């Protein structure tokens, strides 16, 4: 009989602290995919998957999406409180000051073939920032210096994303415009042409701002856990964020938004038969899944998807865009929500189901959807990395149960058959 301490969170979540279990009993816990494992005690984001609750630092996501801006939410996540007016102005001014990127970065960009996936380019460029700021290699510097790295990341990642977009298309790069707010500046750097000035549309800015806010943090998801575990070896913040970008790239995580639109286009190309694709997703012998459906923690609804669903109609109407993919998405959603397979497994549309439709309407290329997710998730990664370092958490190093060969003698090449 072993007595293990219980840990209780502010929202009455309960955990068993098994930190000493192995020392005392010789047992470890086994939990592939960490479905039931808490890796940390965090005060950044609260999520209740059964009730569909998501809060950043205690503030409901619905209120933040309606009333706040992405940069304000970034401040909230990173520093813990909504900023007072002056603090926000200072933060915004700091970010603007660092938006320019070293011209030599263009040489790195030019080295990528135009076929490069923008997520690979972004993670490489995020790592490349260490070369321009070598002092950042030491994550144990004073908090002021670490804060400069935080500001640089918030400032430069949108510039790098926009430059990678224009570079891949052979278009002259646009420089940041400090007169514009964070999201307007980003959109202008993406879409301004030498032949035609980009008019910033408030409807588009608002839609992108909401998408960024809804993606800004999601407690210990795959990419965030990656950022924390990489940072736990005292790797620098740029390298930790670059690792997060790579983790996000996968189609089961941030890459799902790209896969949703590709799936909808595939359904259209196959005559629009949604039933055929639902049957494929239900077939245990077919690896196909309905992209944009299901979530590891949301088992009733994804509150981010609820917000975006309401926005999608409004935005498409305001932009005067009628995407055929949206019609198919609606049919797919209706059919899946009535289907026993999806009901039993509690599979509902997630945030990626709708974000892709909105981004496509805005004119973001499909392979850049996960990149937009990265811009949104950036403050979350930073906040989680900062919290992990502040708590001086130990290096992340899970155990395993070994199930391979027992000890056996080496075989010479001649005797191997
Ligand atoms: N389509 C069809 N069946 C599914 C799906 C789906 N999208 N998702 C889960 N299932 C089935 C799965 O086959 C399994 O069935 P069974 O019990 O018969 O073996 C059951 O539901 C449970 O699935 P799981 O893989 O054990 O669940 P998980 O918690 O490990 O996976 C997930 C969660 C999001 C990876 C998964 O639902 C999925 O692959 N969804 C599609 C990809 C996607 O949209 N990802 C974006 C997630 S939201 C953005 C983010 O926060 O990253």
How is this fold's topology laid out?
Layout: E1 6-8, E2 14-16, H1 21-25, E3 45-48, E4 53-56, E5 59-60, H2 61-67, H3 70-79, H4 85-97, H5 105-110, H6 118-132, H7 143-168, H8 182-191, H9 202-215, H10 222-231, H11 237-249, H12 256-269, H13 274-282, H14 303-319, H15 324-338, H16 340-344, H17 351-362, H18 369-390
This protein binds carboxymethyl coenzyme *A.
The site of carboxymethyl coenzyme *A has 20 residues, from helix 17.
The H/E string reads EEHEEEHHHHHHHHHHHHHHHHH
Number of domains: 2
* Share of helical residues: 40-55%
Computed over alpha carbons, the radius of gyration is 23 Å
Number of helices: 18
Q: Which molecules are bound besides the chains?
A: carboxymethyl coenzyme *A
Shape: globular
What is the name of the CATH architecture of the largest domain?
Orthogonal Bundle
CATH topology term of the largest domain: Citrate Synthase, domain 1
Protein model, in words:
The chain is mainly alpha-helical and 417 residues long. It has two domains: 71-247 and 373-389, Citrate Synthase, domain 1; 256-362, Cytochrome p450-Terp, domain 2 (Orthogonal Bundle), CATH 1.10.230. Helix content is 53%, strand content 4%. The chain has 18 helices and five strands. It has helices at 21-25, 61-67, 70-79, 85-97, 105-110, 118-132, 143-168, 182-191, 202-215, 222-231, 237-249, 256-269, 274-282, 303-319, 324-338, 340-344, 351-362, 369-390; strands spanning 6-8, 14-16, 45-48, 53-56, 59-60. The strands form two sheets. The protein has a three-stranded antiparallel beta sheet with strand order 3-4-5. A two-stranded antiparallel sheet has the order 1-2. Strand 3 (45-48) and strand 4 form a beta hairpin. The longest helix has 26 residues, at 143-168. The chain is globular, with a radius of gyration of 23 Å. The mean pLDDT is 94. Bound molecules: carboxymethyl coenzyme *A. Carboxymethyl coenzyme *A binds next to helix 17.
